[in-house]
Amino acid sequence: MTVSLKNITVSFPRKTALDNICLSFTPGKIHALLGENGAGKSTLASILSGDIMATSGQIVIDGAEVVF
After folding, report:
1. Spatial distance between the Cα atoms of 59 and 9, rounded to a whole number of angstroms
2. How far is it, in rounded angstroms, from Cα 63 to Cα 46?
3. How far apart are CA 16 and CA 68, in angstroms?
4. How many Å apart are CA 68 and CA 54, to the nearest integer?
5. φ and ψ at 44, to 5 degrees?
6. Interval 42-62: pLDDT, tens
7. pLDDT band (50, 70, 90) for residue 2
8. Most buried residue, 11, 30, 63, 67, by CB count within 10 Å?
């Protein structure tokens, strides 16, 4: 299963947590998401799990756009 995040932006009233993020996860590979505190790692995971909605952008799984 290939999962791609295309141009993901998440904005809150006083802060933009993610700004135009593009990332792909491919099968058969080990992926790591690293960064300092406040870099948006948990926000990105929340988008992938459907806990929060992105302000803009799309999530594509195996070539089809999905909305959680």
Report:
1. 11
2. 21
3. 21
4. 10
5. -65, -45
6. 999 999 999 999 999 999 999
7. very high
8. 11
